[in-house]
């Protein structure tokens, strides 16, 4: 799965945490965090269209994307 890891210059959607020793670290944003930030759009006009989007979760079986167009 290392081939799916972010590359230098990539942007990640993360949540930040601080542990007991005051170390800050980030975790990839969970599905519930993403759901609270964005509104899904169901637009049949976007089917089979080329859009610009950013992946926020990449899996072997596919990717979850965010776009400004829906």
TrEMBL record:
<dbReference type="Pfam" id="PF21191">
    <property type="entry name" value="CvfB_1st"/>
</dbReference>
<dbReference type="InterPro" id="IPR012340">
    <property type="entry name" value="NA-bd_OB-fold"/>
</dbReference>
<dbReference type="InterPro" id="IPR014464">
    <property type="entry name" value="CvfB_fam"/>
</dbReference>
<dbReference type="InterPro" id="IPR048588">
    <property type="entry name" value="CvfB_S1_2nd"/>
</dbReference>
<protein>
    <recommendedName>
        <fullName>Conserved virulence factor B</fullName>
    </recommendedName>
</protein>
<feature type="domain" description="Conserved virulence factor B second S1">
    <location>
        <begin position="1"/>
        <end position="26"/>
    </location>
</feature>
<comment type="similarity">
    <text>Belongs to the CvfB family.</text>
</comment>
